[in-house]
Amino acid sequence: MATTPNGFDLDDSGRRIVVDPVTRIEGHMRCEVNVDDDGVIRNAVSTGTMWRGLEVILKGRDPRDAWAFAERVCGVCTGTHALTSVRAVEDALKIDIPDNANSIRNLMQLALHIHDHVVHFYHLHALDWVNPVNALRADPKATSELQQAVSPSHPMSSPGYFRDVQNRLKKFVESGQLGLFKNGYWDNPAYKLSAEADLMATTHYLEALDLQKEIVKIHTIFGGKNPHPNWLVGGVPCPINVHSTGAVGAINIERLNLVETIIKQTTDFCRNVYIPDVQAIGGFYKSWLYGGGISSQSVLSYGDIPEHPNDFSAGQLHLPRGAIINGNLNEVHDVDIRNPDEIQEFVDHSWYTYGEPGKGLHPWDGDTSPKFELGPNAKGTKTNIKQLDEAGKYSWIKAPRWRGHPMEVGPLARYIVGYAAGHEDIKNQVDGFLRTMDLPFDAVFSTLGRTAARALESEYQCRLMTHFMNKLITNIKNGDENTANVAKWDPSTWPKEVKGVGVTEAPRGALGHWIKIKDGRIENYQAVVPTTWNGSPRDTQGNIGAFEASLMNTPMERPEEPVEILRTLHSFDPCLACSTHVMSPDGDELSTVKVR
Amino acid sequence: MALRILVMGIGNVLWADEGFGVRCVEHLSENYKFEPHVTVLDGGTQGLYLLPFLEEADALLVFDAIDYGLAPGTLKIVENDEVPRFMGAKKMSLHQTGFQDVIATAQLMGYCPEALTLIGCQPEELDDYGGGLRDIVAAQIEPAVKIALEKLAIWGAVAEKGRGDDSMIADPSIQRSAYEKGRPDAAEACRTGDDRFFPSEV
């Protein structure tokens, strides 16, 4: 038994459970936990098992193209990486973007957030709480009554509607295509919803599918194409042409009207479906407030959605910026992404080397030299690891720290920072939610809190979209159709050697790209992504990371069915699909499940 | 009325032969044009983002790198009901799992195209981050496109020589030639990594 500097008692004497996903894109992840005789998690180890290396493939490329590479790194938040990249280049070259570009970028970023949040909740995370197989047993009439009680404004609530959905679901399941719902532990007692609540939530799973395909049209309209929309250093690539007949593909009134319709539809969904669902589902799980991890101690947000172009001061950001440490909500620290003493990455437990132990590097001085070795107590071989040794190097993820503290990032972090900073919209939402749920403030530091923050944020972001849409239209009506500043497009106008940083809030948290440009080419590029913060391994001092901490002290109904582990890890919205292998103590594979 | 046809390449261009599908639609749009009822799309790494395109199509033709367990560079064509099964043959990457789910979702929602054709190529190398297509796979782009043109003709879409609509194709900076020529060398940018995925580097 050992206590970490950030206050967790680790005990690795119990049974070890290995959850090993296999995937590509934003990072492979594996997790190992030790459970005691009562099935309670007493030690947690989270590791990224993939060499990512965006940094190294960009060396020598044209900085104006970096966004196109960056948005291929990830399968979900592609546009956010692109935005972060163009911001880094603009910062380095001191390029100001016009007002319309700021509005359009915000609209694209907000649309991406809402899309990500809705899809995450309904299509990736809901199945950790909702049992679609149980929904087949529901009484459609009682489901209709439940629907009208939790959300009187939602029109789709008749018994006939729920009966139709149930029949459709039955047909789908009977045709052997359980596909989407396969590999669930559908008889695990960790599922607590009534059959009617299961049917209601599963029905909304389908409604959300219909909605999400509308939201992404905003990317096609402003980004020219989707998936992988187009971005531009200096602004946005889509021309506006409202006053004349216009170029093909230009933004015109018809397209702007379509965007407004989609925003309206999305707002209704968040208010009448998403938030009521989280409240209704949360009501069944009020006694399951595990998974808070370090959220009650240290959270970080870079902030995003600037009101005015080129102004990233904290007071001008609609998604709040700040850091909270030691659980002191009375003090919100500002965050300086350029200060070499604030954000540093450590590699003592990561498969990299800086040449000397205990060293932390600011991303501008970042170094990505791999060193793959297993600790002396690891089991298995380098190519088939049975069990990691967390006392040694054990992850491809570096350990970023803010002034030495491991930090949680993401919607919950943004909402805690916003709440502590007295952000009015956020405070009202959180207080209202807790009142409805009849829960104390401390309940936010939980898996459920993370899930609720995402729902509340979606609704707030819909209002922000309306705000920026109005701003864009007013500006255009006043005759400003400018969307890009290309004064410094030509590399001959650039200084010989410069550096810059771009940050955003990705749906899953603080994202930063640090760039050095020399002779018109990329000299160094470092990305610190949200999963690096949340999934970080231990650091030199032995502090455990956010994923690791969130699993601590959670009781598992059936240790061989990791429902609780998945529920909490998914609440961070790690953007990866994964397979888990549950190992018995002697290393035999007990079962395999695909995790989303 | 003409069938609404979606021709789509999927995969991650950053992972060597995984980029096969995307490179095929790139090649197709560079060399052939179609009537407006045919959409040629770079589907990239995305999953659910593709649903709106599926909804608007009666017939779907997909190019992808598929691990069939055959010799590298082998093309294999799969149609209709067989498609989802093959997309999940070996889940080497997120987009394969992802696209299988996309099809299942589209079926659940009732907007899956009626006709499906998958033109898959057995990759030689996937675990080379930042790398391009291996020669044996690159050599299959033209044959794959030729097969696609025949299929499209059966579906009533006649291709005309010349540059087609590339508005739904990747940005030029990441298209094959620029991407592969601009790669930093191994000394400058380390290419090895996790031994479980790069076992030859142990």
TrEMBL record, chain A:
Task: Please state the protein's primary subcellular location.
Answer: membrane
The UniProt subunit note reads as follows:
Heterodimer of a large and a small subunit.
GO cellular component terms?
A: plasma membrane
Q: Which reaction does it catalyse?
A: H2 + A = AH2
| Residues binding Mg(2+) | 55, 581
Q: Does the keyword Ubl conjugation apply?
A: no
Per the entry, which co-factors are needed?
Answer: Fe cation; Ni(2+)
**Any idea what job this protein has?**
This enzyme recycles the H(2) produced by nitrogenase to increase the production of ATP and to protect nitrogenase against inhibition or damage by O(2) under carbon- or phosphate-limited conditions.
Pfam families per UniProt:
NiFeSe_Hases
According to its UniProt entry, this protein's organism is: Tritonibacter litoralis
Would you tell me the protein name for this molecule?
A: Uptake hydrogenase large subunit
Molecular function (Gene Ontology), one example: ferredoxin hydrogenase activity
**InterPro entries hit by this protein:** Ni-dep_hyd_lsu, Ni-dep_hyd_lsu_Ni_BS, NiFe-Hase_large, NiFe/NiFeSe_hydrgnase_LSU
Q: How does it sit in the membrane?
A: Peripheral membrane protein
Q: Which residues form a coiled coil?
A: none
What is this enzyme's EC? 1.12.99.6
The residues listed in the UniProt record as binding Fe cation, with positions renumbered to this chain, are 77, 578
Does this UniProt record's set of keywords contain Magnesium? yes
Q: Could you tell me the keywords of this UniProt record?
A: Iron, Magnesium, Metal-binding, Nickel, Oxidoreductase
Q: Which family does it belong to?
A: Belongs to the [NiFe]/[NiFeSe] hydrogenase large subunit family.
TrEMBL record, chain B:
Q: In which residues is Ni(2+) bound?
A: 18, 64, 95
Q: Which GO terms of type biological process are on file?
A: protein processing
InterPro entries in the cross-refs? Pept_A31_hyd_express (IPR004419), Pept_HybD-like_dom_sf (IPR023430), Peptidase_A31 (IPR000671)
Query: Which keywords does this Swiss-Prot/TrEMBL entry list?
Result: Aspartyl protease, Hydrolase, Metal-binding, Nickel, Protease
Q: Does the keyword Protease apply?
A: yes
Keyword Cell membrane part of the UniProt annotation: no
Taxonomy, superkingdom: Bacteria
Q: Which family does it belong to?
A: Belongs to the peptidase A31 family.
Q: What does this protein do?
A: Not known. Could be involved in the processing of hydrogenase.
- State the name under which the record lists this protein: Hydrogenase expression/formation protein HupD
Identify the species of origin.
Tritonibacter litoralis
